[in-house]
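Exercise 7 asks you to align residues with C-alpha coordinates for two separate proteins.
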Amino acid sequence: MDLGIKGRVALVTGGARSLGKADCLALAAEGCKVIVLDLNAAGAAETAQEISSNGGMARGYEADITSRSQLGEVVAKAQTEVGPVDICVNNAGFIYTLGQLKDMQDSDWDLNLQVNLTGTYNVTKAVFSGMRERRWGRIICMASIAGLMGGFGQTAYSTGKMGLVGFAKSVALEGARYNITSNVIAPGIIGPNANLSPMYERMVKRVALQTEGQPEDVASAITFLCSERARYITGAVLTVTGGMDLFTF
Protein backbone atom coordinates (compact mmCIF):
# COMPACT_ATOMS: atom_id res chain seq x y z
CA MET A 1 0.00 0.00 0.00
CA ASP A 2 1.44 3.36 -1.05
CA LEU A 3 1.07 5.80 1.85
CA GLY A 4 1.93 8.78 -0.32
CA ILE A 5 4.92 10.09 1.66
CA LYS A 6 7.79 8.98 -0.53
CA GLY A 7 10.37 11.76 -0.69
CA ARG A 8 9.05 13.54 2.39
CA VAL A 9 11.58 14.55 5.05
CA ALA A 10 10.90 13.10 8.48
CA LEU A 11 12.57 14.27 11.68
CA VAL A 12 12.51 11.78 14.55
CA THR A 13 13.75 12.63 18.03
CA GLY A 14 15.21 9.91 20.22
CA GLY A 15 15.93 7.93 17.08
CA ALA A 16 18.99 6.05 18.32
CA ARG A 17 17.16 3.06 19.77
CA SER A 18 13.91 1.33 20.67
CA LEU A 19 10.73 3.16 19.66
CA GLY A 20 12.52 6.02 17.95
CA LYS A 21 14.70 3.72 15.86
CA ALA A 22 11.66 1.69 14.82
CA ASP A 23 9.95 4.94 13.76
CA CYS A 24 12.95 5.92 11.65
CA LEU A 25 13.12 2.53 9.93
CA ALA A 26 9.38 2.44 9.25
CA LEU A 27 9.32 5.92 7.72
CA ALA A 28 12.42 5.15 5.65
CA ALA A 29 10.71 2.01 4.37
CA GLU A 30 7.96 4.28 3.02
CA GLY A 31 10.53 6.31 1.11
CA CYS A 32 11.01 9.18 3.56
CA LYS A 33 14.35 10.90 4.02
CA VAL A 34 15.07 10.72 7.73
CA ILE A 35 16.73 13.15 10.13
CA VAL A 36 17.68 11.17 13.23
CA LEU A 37 18.10 13.30 16.36
CA ASP A 38 19.38 11.94 19.66
CA LEU A 39 21.60 12.85 22.60
CA ASN A 40 23.54 9.73 21.64
CA ALA A 41 25.43 10.87 18.56
CA ALA A 42 26.86 7.42 17.82
CA GLY A 43 23.41 5.83 18.12
CA ALA A 44 21.86 8.41 15.79
CA ALA A 45 24.59 7.78 13.25
CA GLU A 46 24.08 4.03 13.55
CA THR A 47 20.35 4.31 12.83
CA ALA A 48 21.06 6.56 9.85
CA GLN A 49 23.70 4.13 8.56
CA GLU A 50 21.27 1.21 8.77
CA ILE A 51 18.78 3.15 6.67
CA SER A 52 21.45 4.13 4.14
CA SER A 53 22.69 0.55 3.91
CA ASN A 54 19.20 -0.51 2.88
CA GLY A 55 19.06 2.06 0.09
CA GLY A 56 17.41 4.91 1.97
CA MET A 57 18.56 8.42 2.79
CA ALA A 58 19.20 9.43 6.41
CA ARG A 59 21.58 11.42 8.56
CA GLY A 60 22.11 11.33 12.30
CA TYR A 61 22.67 14.36 14.50
CA GLU A 62 23.46 14.88 18.16
CA ALA A 63 20.82 17.13 19.70
CA ASP A 64 19.61 18.15 23.13
CA ILE A 65 15.92 18.99 22.80
CA THR A 66 16.02 20.98 26.04
CA SER A 67 18.59 23.44 24.64
CA ARG A 68 16.78 25.77 22.24
CA SER A 69 19.92 27.39 20.86
CA GLN A 70 21.72 24.11 20.19
CA LEU A 71 18.57 22.48 18.83
CA GLY A 72 17.95 25.39 16.49
CA GLU A 73 21.43 25.10 15.03
CA VAL A 74 21.12 21.35 14.53
CA VAL A 75 17.68 21.55 12.91
CA ALA A 76 18.86 24.32 10.58
CA LYS A 77 21.90 22.26 9.57
CA ALA A 78 19.82 19.12 9.06
CA GLN A 79 17.30 20.91 6.88
CA THR A 80 20.12 22.27 4.75
CA GLU A 81 21.69 18.84 4.34
CA VAL A 82 18.59 16.64 4.11
CA GLY A 83 15.73 18.98 3.27
CA PRO A 84 12.90 20.97 4.89
CA VAL A 85 11.07 18.94 7.51
CA ASP A 86 7.62 17.68 6.49
CA ILE A 87 7.09 15.14 9.29
CA CYS A 88 8.00 15.68 12.93
CA VAL A 89 7.88 12.69 15.27
CA ASN A 90 8.40 13.81 18.86
CA ASN A 91 9.51 10.50 20.29
CA ALA A 92 12.20 11.62 22.75
CA GLY A 93 11.21 11.36 26.40
CA PHE A 94 11.85 9.39 29.54
CA ILE A 95 10.67 8.38 32.99
CA TYR A 96 13.36 10.02 35.05
CA THR A 97 12.21 8.79 38.43
CA LEU A 98 9.54 6.58 39.93
CA GLY A 99 8.33 7.73 43.34
CA GLN A 100 5.32 9.01 45.18
CA LEU A 101 4.53 12.71 45.36
CA LYS A 102 5.45 12.87 49.03
CA ASP A 103 8.98 11.75 48.18
CA MET A 104 9.47 13.65 44.92
CA GLN A 105 12.36 16.05 44.55
CA ASP A 106 11.44 19.34 42.90
CA SER A 107 14.36 18.89 40.52
CA ASP A 108 12.90 15.56 39.35
CA TRP A 109 9.59 17.24 38.54
CA ASP A 110 11.36 20.03 36.66
CA LEU A 111 13.52 17.70 34.57
CA ASN A 112 10.62 15.43 33.62
CA LEU A 113 8.59 18.36 32.31
CA GLN A 114 11.62 19.98 30.70
CA VAL A 115 12.32 16.91 28.57
CA ASN A 116 8.91 15.34 27.98
CA LEU A 117 6.80 18.46 27.52
CA THR A 118 9.00 21.49 26.86
CA GLY A 119 11.37 19.46 24.69
CA THR A 120 8.48 18.53 22.40
CA TYR A 121 7.44 22.19 22.26
CA ASN A 122 11.00 23.19 21.30
CA VAL A 123 11.26 20.70 18.44
CA THR A 124 7.78 21.34 17.08
CA LYS A 125 8.23 25.10 17.13
CA ALA A 126 11.52 24.76 15.26
CA VAL A 127 9.80 23.13 12.25
CA PHE A 128 6.22 24.41 12.41
CA SER A 129 6.72 27.70 10.56
CA GLY A 130 8.31 25.91 7.61
CA MET A 131 5.38 23.51 7.41
CA ARG A 132 2.99 26.45 7.36
CA GLU A 133 4.92 28.11 4.55
CA ARG A 134 4.88 24.93 2.46
CA ARG A 135 1.29 24.17 3.48
CA TRP A 136 1.89 20.54 4.43
CA GLY A 137 2.97 18.84 7.59
CA ARG A 138 2.54 15.94 9.98
CA ILE A 139 3.25 16.24 13.70
CA ILE A 140 3.22 13.32 16.11
CA CYS A 141 3.51 13.69 19.87
CA MET A 142 4.37 10.67 21.96
CA ALA A 143 2.24 10.56 25.09
CA SER A 144 1.59 7.46 27.18
CA ILE A 145 -1.24 5.49 28.70
CA ALA A 146 0.04 6.94 31.99
CA GLY A 147 -0.84 10.38 30.66
CA LEU A 148 -4.43 9.32 30.08
CA MET A 149 -4.99 7.22 33.19
CA GLY A 150 -2.41 8.50 35.65
CA GLY A 151 0.32 6.36 37.13
CA PHE A 152 1.12 5.47 40.72
CA GLY A 153 4.51 6.98 41.49
CA GLN A 154 4.55 8.70 38.08
CA THR A 155 3.12 12.13 38.90
CA ALA A 156 5.64 14.14 36.89
CA TYR A 157 5.73 11.71 33.97
CA SER A 158 1.94 11.44 33.76
CA THR A 159 1.50 15.20 33.98
CA GLY A 160 3.96 15.84 31.17
CA LYS A 161 2.38 13.23 28.93
CA MET A 162 -1.13 14.57 29.53
CA GLY A 163 0.22 18.02 28.75
CA LEU A 164 1.29 16.72 25.34
CA VAL A 165 -2.34 15.90 24.55
CA GLY A 166 -3.38 19.52 25.07
CA PHE A 167 -0.34 20.73 23.16
CA ALA A 168 -0.97 18.48 20.15
CA LYS A 169 -4.66 19.36 19.98
CA SER A 170 -3.86 23.07 20.06
CA VAL A 171 -1.26 22.65 17.31
CA ALA A 172 -3.87 20.71 15.33
CA LEU A 173 -6.16 23.74 15.43
CA GLU A 174 -3.39 26.14 14.44
CA GLY A 175 -2.14 23.94 11.62
CA ALA A 176 -5.44 22.84 10.10
CA ARG A 177 -5.75 25.67 7.56
CA TYR A 178 -2.23 24.93 6.38
CA ASN A 179 -2.79 21.22 5.75
CA ILE A 180 -0.83 20.29 8.87
CA THR A 181 -2.15 17.52 11.08
CA SER A 182 -1.12 16.97 14.68
CA ASN A 183 -1.89 13.74 16.52
CA VAL A 184 -0.95 11.86 19.66
CA ILE A 185 0.19 8.29 20.15
CA ALA A 186 -0.34 6.89 23.64
CA PRO A 187 1.51 3.57 23.97
CA GLY A 188 1.05 1.08 26.76
CA ILE A 189 3.70 -1.48 27.67
CA ILE A 190 6.15 -1.71 24.81
CA GLY A 191 8.85 -4.36 25.18
CA PRO A 192 11.35 -5.55 25.76
CA ASN A 193 11.10 -3.73 29.07
CA ALA A 194 11.52 -6.52 31.60
CA ASN A 195 13.37 -4.21 33.98
CA LEU A 196 10.86 -1.38 33.80
CA SER A 197 9.23 -2.18 37.11
CA PRO A 198 9.23 -4.90 39.76
CA MET A 199 5.50 -5.15 38.96
CA TYR A 200 6.15 -5.74 35.27
CA GLU A 201 4.50 -9.16 35.02
CA ARG A 202 1.48 -7.86 36.90
CA MET A 203 1.24 -4.93 34.50
CA VAL A 204 1.33 -7.20 31.45
CA LYS A 205 -1.49 -9.30 32.92
CA ARG A 206 -3.62 -6.15 32.97
CA VAL A 207 -3.32 -5.93 29.17
CA ALA A 208 -6.39 -7.36 27.45
CA LEU A 209 -4.23 -9.08 24.84
CA GLN A 210 -2.06 -10.49 27.64
CA THR A 211 1.22 -9.50 26.05
CA GLU A 212 3.46 -6.49 25.70
CA GLY A 213 3.63 -4.57 22.44
CA GLN A 214 6.69 -4.14 20.26
CA PRO A 215 8.29 -0.94 18.91
CA GLU A 216 7.08 -1.88 15.42
CA ASP A 217 3.47 -1.75 16.64
CA VAL A 218 3.90 1.90 17.54
CA ALA A 219 5.93 2.68 14.41
CA SER A 220 3.18 1.29 12.17
CA ALA A 221 0.59 3.54 13.82
CA ILE A 222 2.86 6.56 13.48
CA THR A 223 3.61 5.85 9.82
CA PHE A 224 -0.09 5.68 9.06
CA LEU A 225 -0.84 8.97 10.83
CA CYS A 226 1.96 10.61 8.84
CA SER A 227 0.56 9.36 5.55
CA GLU A 228 -1.78 10.88 3.00
CA ARG A 229 -4.30 8.20 3.95
CA ALA A 230 -4.65 9.88 7.34
CA ARG A 231 -5.08 13.38 5.90
CA TYR A 232 -8.47 13.83 7.61
CA ILE A 233 -7.29 12.77 11.07
CA THR A 234 -6.04 15.54 13.33
CA GLY A 235 -6.20 16.24 17.04
CA ALA A 236 -6.68 12.53 17.68
CA VAL A 237 -5.25 10.42 20.50
CA LEU A 238 -4.50 6.90 19.31
CA THR A 239 -3.85 4.36 22.06
CA VAL A 240 -1.50 1.51 21.19
CA THR A 241 -1.96 -0.50 24.36
CA GLY A 242 -3.27 -3.97 23.55
CA GLY A 243 -6.34 -2.98 25.54
CA MET A 244 -4.50 -1.99 28.72
CA ASP A 245 -6.86 0.97 29.02
CA LEU A 246 -9.94 -1.24 28.98
CA PHE A 247 -11.68 -2.49 32.10
CA THR A 248 -10.32 -5.99 32.43
CA PHE A 249 -10.90 -8.62 35.10
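Second protein for Exercise 7:
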Amino acid sequence: MSFRDKTAIVAGAGGGMGLNIANDLIDAGASVAMADVKPEPDGIRSEQGRHVYFQGDLTEEAFVRNAVHRTVEEFGGVDYLVNTTGVLWFDRDLSFSTMDLSVWDEVFRINLKSFVLTARCVVPEMKKRGGGAMVHFASIDALRADTRPQDAYAASKAAVIRLSKSIAIQFAAARIRSNVILPGPVLSPMQARWQGKEDVQAAVATGIPLGRLGTTQDQSNACCFLLSDEASFITGTELVVDGGLTAQ
Protein backbone atom coordinates (compact mmCIF):
# COMPACT_ATOMS: atom_id res chain seq x y z
CA MET A 1 0.00 0.00 0.00
CA SER A 2 1.29 3.42 -0.95
CA PHE A 3 0.39 6.65 0.80
CA ARG A 4 2.69 8.84 -1.23
CA ASP A 5 1.56 12.46 -1.53
CA LYS A 6 -0.99 11.91 1.24
CA THR A 7 -1.15 13.46 4.71
CA ALA A 8 -2.25 11.74 7.90
CA ILE A 9 -2.86 12.93 11.42
CA VAL A 10 -2.22 10.29 14.08
CA ALA A 11 -3.61 11.19 17.50
CA GLY A 12 -1.99 9.35 20.37
CA ALA A 13 1.27 8.86 18.48
CA GLY A 14 3.59 9.16 21.47
CA GLY A 15 4.06 5.40 21.70
CA GLY A 16 2.48 1.99 21.24
CA MET A 17 -0.01 1.53 18.42
CA GLY A 18 -0.04 5.19 17.45
CA LEU A 19 3.72 5.34 16.97
CA ASN A 20 3.71 2.05 15.04
CA ILE A 21 0.98 3.31 12.71
CA ALA A 22 2.70 6.65 12.19
CA ASN A 23 5.96 4.92 11.29
CA ASP A 24 4.24 2.57 8.84
CA LEU A 25 2.52 5.49 7.14
CA ILE A 26 5.81 7.38 6.94
CA ASP A 27 7.48 4.29 5.46
CA ALA A 28 4.70 4.15 2.85
CA GLY A 29 5.45 7.71 1.79
CA ALA A 30 2.92 9.72 3.76
CA SER A 31 3.50 13.01 5.50
CA VAL A 32 2.39 12.44 9.08
CA ALA A 33 1.40 14.87 11.80
CA MET A 34 1.76 13.16 15.17
CA ALA A 35 0.04 14.44 18.30
CA ASP A 36 0.15 13.34 21.92
CA VAL A 37 0.30 14.71 25.43
CA LYS A 38 3.59 12.83 25.82
CA PRO A 39 6.91 14.22 24.55
CA GLU A 40 8.08 13.28 21.06
CA PRO A 41 9.31 9.68 21.27
CA ASP A 42 12.51 8.20 19.93
CA GLY A 43 12.32 5.91 16.94
CA ILE A 44 10.28 7.98 14.50
CA ARG A 45 11.23 6.92 10.99
CA SER A 46 11.41 9.70 8.44
CA GLU A 47 13.43 8.23 5.57
CA GLN A 48 10.47 7.81 3.21
CA GLY A 49 8.11 10.53 4.36
CA ARG A 50 7.94 13.65 6.47
CA HIS A 51 6.58 14.21 9.94
CA VAL A 52 5.82 16.90 12.49
CA TYR A 53 5.09 16.34 16.16
CA PHE A 54 2.67 18.33 18.30
CA GLN A 55 2.77 17.88 22.06
CA GLY A 56 -0.41 18.84 23.84
CA ASP A 57 -3.76 17.82 25.26
CA LEU A 58 -6.00 16.30 22.61
CA THR A 59 -9.05 16.99 24.77
CA GLU A 60 -8.47 20.73 24.38
CA GLU A 61 -10.15 22.14 21.28
CA ALA A 62 -7.68 25.01 20.87
CA PHE A 63 -4.75 22.58 20.74
CA VAL A 64 -6.47 20.28 18.27
CA ARG A 65 -7.50 23.13 15.97
CA ASN A 66 -3.98 24.56 16.03
CA ALA A 67 -2.44 21.15 15.27
CA VAL A 68 -4.76 20.64 12.29
CA HIS A 69 -4.11 24.20 11.05
CA ARG A 70 -0.34 23.75 11.29
CA THR A 71 -0.59 20.37 9.54
CA VAL A 72 -2.40 21.99 6.62
CA GLU A 73 0.17 24.77 6.51
CA GLU A 74 3.04 22.28 6.54
CA PHE A 75 1.68 19.58 4.22
CA GLY A 76 -1.15 21.20 2.27
CA GLY A 77 -4.15 19.31 3.62
CA VAL A 78 -5.43 16.28 5.50
CA ASP A 79 -6.34 12.93 3.91
CA TYR A 80 -6.39 10.57 6.89
CA LEU A 81 -7.13 10.63 10.60
CA VAL A 82 -6.17 7.90 13.05
CA ASN A 83 -7.46 8.12 16.63
CA THR A 84 -5.56 5.92 19.07
CA THR A 85 -5.71 8.13 22.16
CA GLY A 86 -6.89 6.31 25.24
CA VAL A 87 -6.38 5.39 28.88
CA LEU A 88 -7.08 2.16 30.76
CA TRP A 89 -6.83 2.73 34.51
CA PHE A 90 -7.15 -0.66 36.20
CA ASP A 91 -6.73 0.77 39.68
CA ARG A 92 -9.44 3.46 39.38
CA ASP A 93 -11.76 2.48 36.51
CA LEU A 94 -13.94 -0.10 38.23
CA SER A 95 -17.67 -0.81 38.49
CA PHE A 96 -19.96 2.10 37.73
CA SER A 97 -21.71 1.33 41.03
CA THR A 98 -18.72 2.13 43.20
CA MET A 99 -16.15 4.10 41.19
CA ASP A 100 -15.39 7.76 41.66
CA LEU A 101 -17.46 9.42 38.93
CA SER A 102 -14.76 12.02 38.36
CA VAL A 103 -12.72 9.11 36.96
CA TRP A 104 -15.66 8.23 34.69
CA ASP A 105 -15.73 11.79 33.36
CA GLU A 106 -11.97 11.88 32.78
CA VAL A 107 -11.93 8.56 30.92
CA PHE A 108 -14.72 9.76 28.62
CA ARG A 109 -12.92 13.06 28.10
CA ILE A 110 -9.77 11.30 26.93
CA ASN A 111 -11.23 8.25 25.18
CA LEU A 112 -14.17 9.90 23.42
CA LYS A 113 -14.06 13.70 23.48
CA SER A 114 -10.59 13.73 21.91
CA PHE A 115 -11.97 11.67 18.99
CA VAL A 116 -14.87 14.10 18.56
CA LEU A 117 -12.51 17.07 18.47
CA THR A 118 -10.07 15.61 15.96
CA ALA A 119 -12.87 14.41 13.67
CA ARG A 120 -14.77 17.69 13.66
CA CYS A 121 -11.58 19.63 12.95
CA VAL A 122 -10.44 17.45 10.03
CA VAL A 123 -13.80 17.03 8.25
CA PRO A 124 -13.62 20.48 6.59
CA GLU A 125 -10.06 19.78 5.45
CA MET A 126 -11.00 16.38 4.04
CA LYS A 127 -13.87 17.96 2.15
CA LYS A 128 -11.39 20.31 0.49
CA ARG A 129 -9.41 17.27 -0.68
CA GLY A 130 -12.50 15.58 -2.10
CA GLY A 131 -12.67 12.95 0.64
CA GLY A 132 -10.64 11.09 3.21
CA ALA A 133 -10.58 8.21 5.65
CA MET A 134 -10.65 7.87 9.41
CA VAL A 135 -9.82 4.93 11.66
CA HIS A 136 -10.76 5.06 15.33
CA PHE A 137 -9.52 2.57 17.90
CA ALA A 138 -12.05 1.04 20.28
CA SER A 139 -11.69 -2.34 22.02
CA ILE A 140 -13.32 -5.73 22.18
CA ASP A 141 -14.34 -4.63 25.69
CA ALA A 142 -17.03 -2.57 23.94
CA LEU A 143 -18.75 -5.84 22.96
CA ARG A 144 -18.92 -7.70 26.24
CA ALA A 145 -19.17 -7.41 30.01
CA ASP A 146 -16.76 -8.65 32.65
CA THR A 147 -16.92 -9.70 36.28
CA ARG A 148 -13.87 -7.46 36.80
CA PRO A 149 -15.14 -4.40 34.98
CA GLN A 150 -13.51 -1.26 33.75
CA ASP A 151 -16.89 0.29 33.06
CA ALA A 152 -15.83 3.76 31.94
CA TYR A 153 -13.27 2.35 29.51
CA ALA A 154 -15.68 -0.17 28.01
CA ALA A 155 -18.56 2.31 27.73
CA SER A 156 -16.35 4.96 26.14
CA LYS A 157 -15.12 2.44 23.57
CA ALA A 158 -18.69 1.44 22.76
CA ALA A 159 -19.42 5.12 22.20
CA VAL A 160 -16.51 5.31 19.75
CA ILE A 161 -18.24 2.69 17.58
CA ARG A 162 -21.45 4.70 17.50
CA LEU A 163 -19.58 7.94 16.78
CA SER A 164 -17.73 6.36 13.87
CA LYS A 165 -20.96 5.07 12.32
CA SER A 166 -22.46 8.54 12.56
CA ILE A 167 -19.43 10.11 10.89
CA ALA A 168 -19.58 7.50 8.13
CA ILE A 169 -23.22 8.19 7.31
CA GLN A 170 -23.14 11.96 7.74
CA PHE A 171 -20.18 12.42 5.43
CA ALA A 172 -20.46 9.55 2.96
CA ALA A 173 -21.60 11.97 0.26
CA ALA A 174 -18.38 13.91 0.83
CA ARG A 175 -16.43 10.65 0.25
CA ILE A 176 -15.20 10.58 3.84
CA ARG A 177 -14.98 7.06 5.25
CA SER A 178 -14.94 6.18 8.94
CA ASN A 179 -14.22 2.77 10.49
CA VAL A 180 -13.30 1.29 13.84
CA ILE A 181 -10.70 -1.28 14.90
CA LEU A 182 -11.42 -3.36 17.99
CA PRO A 183 -8.14 -4.79 19.31
CA GLY A 184 -8.00 -7.78 21.59
CA PRO A 185 -5.16 -8.32 24.06
CA VAL A 186 -2.16 -6.44 22.68
CA LEU A 187 1.34 -6.27 24.10
CA SER A 188 1.73 -2.51 24.24
CA PRO A 189 2.57 0.22 26.76
CA MET A 190 -1.11 0.37 27.79
CA GLN A 191 -0.72 -3.19 29.05
CA ALA A 192 2.34 -2.46 31.17
CA ARG A 193 1.09 -5.05 33.70
CA TRP A 194 2.24 -7.75 31.26
CA GLN A 195 5.66 -6.32 30.46
CA GLY A 196 8.46 -8.70 31.43
CA LYS A 197 6.01 -11.26 32.79
CA GLU A 198 6.28 -14.11 30.32
CA ASP A 199 4.22 -16.45 32.51
CA VAL A 200 1.32 -13.96 32.60
CA GLN A 201 1.56 -13.37 28.86
CA ALA A 202 1.52 -17.10 28.21
CA ALA A 203 -1.52 -17.55 30.44
CA VAL A 204 -3.43 -14.83 28.59
CA ALA A 205 -2.40 -16.30 25.23
CA THR A 206 -3.91 -19.68 26.10
CA GLY A 207 -7.35 -18.12 25.86
CA ILE A 208 -6.74 -16.77 22.35
CA PRO A 209 -7.48 -19.22 19.50
CA LEU A 210 -4.41 -18.15 17.51
CA GLY A 211 -2.30 -18.84 20.58
CA ARG A 212 -0.53 -15.53 21.07
CA LEU A 213 -0.97 -11.96 22.22
CA GLY A 214 -1.50 -9.32 19.57
CA THR A 215 1.18 -6.83 18.63
CA THR A 216 1.04 -3.17 17.72
CA GLN A 217 2.09 -4.25 14.23
CA ASP A 218 -1.06 -6.39 13.92
CA GLN A 219 -3.15 -3.31 14.67
CA SER A 220 -1.13 -1.10 12.33
CA ASN A 221 -1.56 -3.57 9.46
CA ALA A 222 -5.33 -3.46 9.91
CA CYS A 223 -5.37 0.32 10.23
CA CYS A 224 -3.31 0.95 7.10
CA PHE A 225 -5.63 -1.34 5.13
CA LEU A 226 -8.73 0.55 6.26
CA LEU A 227 -7.12 3.88 5.35
CA SER A 228 -6.00 2.65 1.94
CA ASP A 229 -7.77 2.71 -1.41
CA GLU A 230 -8.08 -1.07 -1.12
CA ALA A 231 -10.80 -0.37 1.47
CA SER A 232 -12.55 2.28 -0.61
CA PHE A 233 -15.96 0.53 -0.30
CA ILE A 234 -15.69 -0.04 3.46
CA THR A 235 -17.20 2.53 5.82
CA GLY A 236 -19.24 2.55 9.00
CA THR A 237 -18.05 -0.83 10.17
CA GLU A 238 -15.79 -2.48 12.75
CA LEU A 239 -12.79 -4.73 12.25
CA VAL A 240 -12.06 -7.03 15.20
CA VAL A 241 -8.33 -7.80 15.49
CA ASP A 242 -8.20 -10.18 18.42
CA GLY A 243 -6.84 -13.55 17.27
CA GLY A 244 -10.32 -15.05 17.35
CA LEU A 245 -10.99 -14.30 21.01
CA THR A 246 -14.51 -12.92 20.62
CA ALA A 247 -15.49 -15.61 18.08
CA GLN A 248 -15.47 -18.29 20.78
